[in-house]
Amino acid sequence: MEEQILTPIIGSEDGQAVLSTWSIKVGDQITVGQIIATIETNKAVLDLESTKKGEVKELLVSAGSEIEDLQPLVTVAVE
After folding, report:
1. Residue 68 neighbours by CB under 8 Å, 6+ apart
2. HSE on the CB side for 30, CA within 13 Å?
3. Residues contacting residue 72 through CB under 8 Å, at least 6 positions apart
4. Do residues 35 and 48 make contact, with C-beta atoms less than 8 angstroms apart?
5. Rounded to an integer, what is the distance from CA 62 to the centroid of its chain?
6. pLDDT by residue for the chain (79 residues), tens digit each?
7. Are 69 and 9 in contact (CB under 8 A)?
8. What is the rounded distance in angstroms from the CA atom of residue 74 to the CA atom of residue 7?
9. How far, in Å, CA of 43 to CA of 53, rounded?
10. Rounded CA separation 39/42 (Å)
């Protein structure tokens, strides 16, 4: 079954941030708690941890793109 990992609620004033870098690629096996990306807001740089375990099927956002709270970021084939 495929599931998505969403942007967490970041709490920035405007609700937006930038996904600055991915630490994973399509085909990678990921685990819960693994750092999968770096997110930048106007006040902080945050590591995004996986909430799923499985194989990365699709990165839905390109590095450098603006993202919003609860936006789908990654599709994972969960185990």
Report:
1. 7, 15, 16, 17
2. 31
3. 4, 5, 6, 60
4. yes
5. 10
6. 999 999 988 876 666 799 999 999 999 999 999 999 999 988 889 999 999 999 999 999 999 999 988 999 999 999 7
7. yes
8. 9
9. 30
10. 10
Secondary-structure percent of the chain, ordered helix, strand, coil, rounded to 5: 0, 55, 45
pTM higher than 0.85 = yes
Beta bridge partners of residue 48, listed in sequence order = 37
Residues in the chain: 79
Nearest CA among 16, 64, 59, 60 for reference residue 38: 64
The CA dihedral of 62, 65, 67, 72, to the nearest 10 degrees, is: -10
